[in-house]
Amino acid sequence: MANERQFSAVQSGLIERYRTWLPIESGDPVVSLGEGSTPLVQAPVLSARFDCEVWIKVEGANPTGSFKDRGMTMAVSKAKAEGAQAVVCASTGNTSASAAAYAVRAGMKPIVLLPQGKIAKGKLAQAIVYGAQIVQVDGNFDECLTVARKLAEAYPVALVNSVNPFRLEGQKTAAFEIVDALGDAPDLHVMPIGNAGNMPAYWRGFKQYADAGKATKRPRMWAVQAEGAAPLVLGHPVLNPETIATAIRIGNPASADLANAARDESGGQFTAVSDEQILAAQRFLAAHEGIFVEPASASGIAALLAAHAAGELESGQRITITVTGNGLKDIDTALSGIDIRTEVVAPEAMAVADAIGLA
Ligand SMILES: *Cc1c(COP(=O)(O)O)cnc(C)c1O
Known about the structure:
With about 350 residues, this protein is of the alpha/beta class. Helices cover about 40% and strands about 15% of the residues. It contains 16 helices and ten strands.
């Protein structure tokens, strides 16, 4: 009883909400921070532009600011059930923030491997403040993941990257929430893709709900990469992935096979967008729909804007777009290339009116 109370959150998380759909046993501890149940927000400006019904799933509203919390509540609960004392992950940032939070919540030690110098400052701050043991590795994300896997094989630490099967089980609940909110599946679901765990997780969720009669159809899955890190579009690994969207700066996706299957089964596609398109989409979404997301999260919006501009987006569709992480995680990139006003005016309405062109 004391234990149960220790692990409960005031807002019950996704394990409680979707328990019957998840591989969780009645005796398993539930390590939760109240994740899931994120807003599905209508996008009137994008809807009008595309002549479609567009909805945005705002995953930055999760406890540590990204969808990774959905997988982490499952992975850490299972690691706790198995008696693990520590968890390890390789991370481009959000996995480390999430793993650290859920591990300390469970009384376990978080160990995170970060590619040296390639992580957004907000995410690094999270890992530090949650108290993770951080090791910067002289290599990229793909090399970090190889090391993390070997570490978990040789030492008593649980691997909580998305190659952990419980991660995808937790992450599929976002698809459940979309169908529960809309009353059916969308025609098209668009999202960023990096290490390729989340897209097949959504596909699994959409499929399970359709099989159970909770939706009349399944969406086409459209997953978007950055041009400099587009192994799934190219069909082969990229040795030195480069993009400002650090969360999807991955050259050799661990779950590529699952993602290829999800694309094929759903009649979907992989496409890539440039860093410029990503930054423009990030600003568009913030300035027109009031949603501030991190760069990787804007890639789905960027792909839709580009397809529409090219006359390749069919009108009349119901489209859902997942934006995966919160904009505050990477303010350096958000502000890059923007001229922040340095002019200081007198504390008078006239002076301010003058400065903003009202006078
Ligand atoms: C992890 C992450 C992704 C990529 O998800 P995968 O499951 O690795 O494909 C995209 N955006 C953000 C913000 C992320 O943290």
